[in-house]
Amino acid sequence: MKIIRKAAGMRSFSESERRKGKRIAFVPTMGYLHEGHLSLLRRARKIGDTTVMSIFINPLQFGPGEDFKRYPRAMKRDLMLAKREGCHAVFIPGSGEMYPAGEKTRVEVPGLSDVLCGKTRKGHFVGVTTVVAKLLNAVNPHFLILGRKDVQQAVIIERMVKDLRFAAKVVVCPTVREKGGLALSSRNKYLSEREKSDARVLFRALSLGKRLVRDGEKSARVIKANMKRLIGRYQSIDLEYVSIVHPKSLEEIRTIKGDAIIALAARVRKARLIDNVLARPKR
Ligand code: AMP
Fold first, then answer.
1. How far is the CA of 146 from the centre of ligand 1 (A)?
2. Which atom of ligand 1 is nearest to the CA of 145?
3. Any idea what DSSP says for residue 113?
4. Active site residues
5. What is the pTM (predicted TM-score) of this model?
6. Residue closest by Cα to atom 10 of ligand 1
7. SS3 of 12, please?
8. How many CA atoms lie within 13 A of 128 on its CB side?
9. What confidence tens digit (pLDDT) does each residue in 207-250 have?
């Protein structure tokens, strides 16, 4: 497995793989790998010939007071896991490589990045789209593999890839969860066992919402009220939002007529957690 630290080195690896007729599948991450990341690597191996993963804790997507400094890191372990999953190259650029002195350009997808998490995390998605654009330029993959756990991020990146005419095909993979339903996240490390157990209510609430939609409830207000009541039983959980949105436009839905995403964000002490499910009315 190759370790590559420079964008130019990444590009030449990618060009040489392309010359051999290999299809490159790319999984961008911030490291501290868990089964969610590994599921993306497995999908990458299935659909491509050459798997590239990046590990870069992107300073631009963290706001002031957010957890950039204490974001968990485990590079040695990550590399061991990537190798075990058959990864061919890991791109680990330093901050100076991605944001050299004097760089200024930002990539923004207005509208989609102002709703849901964008309301409280100002500038977060500009950080995400800017870094993903830079990574795509370095890796030039055939497939860009993302997780549905970060559904807003996936929708925004799909839009950017289309709008900027990147050649990569975006593939979005299902959310991997613990047995109790809690979505795997590097940030779960911030939680004690007790908090983790409390945080399971987030998926229970999403599942309740999904069930209500399936059983014919059309009012987003009623569904959200039921979910909030359930989550409200836990003092340790500070709910930031529950929203029901259109899967592509991310616009708030009031009356549910077709597929909808139920998404939420909550703080459980030091950790800000997000999760979502796709809800479908029975036809
Ligand atoms: P991160 O390292 O948190 O930036 O995540 C890197 C990629 O892994 C993103 O595309 C995430 O959506 C995806 N991912 C994170 N957690 C999960 C999960 N529990 N299930 C599936 N994909 C995930």
1. 7
2. 10
3. T
4. 37
5. 0.98
6. 146
7. helix
8. 27
9. 999 999 999 999 999 999 999 999 999 999 999 999 999 999 99
